[in-house]
Design brief:
five-stranded parallel β-sheet, single chain, alpha/beta
Length: 374
Amino acid sequence: MNDDVLGGRTDVLVIGGGQAGLSAGYYLHRFGLGDRTLMLDHSPGPGGAWQFRWPTLTLAGANNVHDLPGLGLSEALGMKCDHWPARTAVPDYFAQYEEKFGLNVQRPVHIRAVSKDGDDFRVTASDGSDLLARTVINATGTWDRPFIPYVPGIETFTGAQLHTHDYLDPGAFAGKRVLVVGAGISAVQLLIEIARNADGVQTFWCSRTEPRFTERSFTAEQGRAAVARVEERVRAGLAPGSVVSVTGLPVNDSIRQARADGILEWRPMFTRITETGVCWDCTTGQAGTDHLDVDVILWCTGFRSSLDHLAPLKLRGPGGGIVMTGRLATVVEAEPRVQLLGYGPSASTIGANRAGREAARVVQAVLSRSPERT
């Protein structure tokens, strides 16, 4: 299946077949809207962004793959799946889920633009084919928008620059001097993995904010606080913030041992990139006393929401974000028939499930206010 699936009209369009999209699809079917729904995904197969993660990331190392509604992960894969590679285990889980609940996700379909067309939305694919939709649930996630901050001199670096998005195997860094940039879970995981498994490697670590480690187990209260903080921002039209900044990085045995072995020696963010590395408090590209020579800069600096196809709707405000409303902040205030899942408080896997149900409820209410079209 490809872009030529487009054509005609649908009452409900779900864009994205990851956790949030599947959750929305499940509840749309539960609410009797399955035959009025079209689900599209640009990936080659089930699994959302998980199918593109690095091969060494296991389910145990992943940041909590939450159960989809109606079919749990362990129920689908078995109880002893923690050490399975996430890039194959999650696609298997999602494929079983789609089949069990009859979620006919059409893929790969690459959406280029969503624009207004009278009372409908015109959805255009990369081949120029299009369709009309009365309501849109956008669940495109962030994987396609890796973020690398601008640092003076970044264009002059003659070594390799990679992002978490590009990471495949620690062996690629053997014998190199590698600088990992970022203060999140991925940065710590990859820093430790490279230091432990790449022969002859030397690793270094920097980030804009100092990493916050916590020995306390993650609690429901912390989760609610993180979600509330992000929700407050998106309701004000600001870009979503980092959840880790609220919860901190949970310390486990791997992190404790890495600390003891000197792997997690952190430095504040450099101020400039030079041809051969980075430097602090320097105003030119000349290597000085506070200069670090490196062969690779690995940017573990997160992702931004993949929303470029919604640009014709002009949803973004002066704060750089999109003003969200609704009970769970899934509804775009400027276009109430457009909902964003995986944006703001619904970016976590558990948040995606709650948002999926709420999005389906909102769609049901919208469609009940106007007659069905053919």
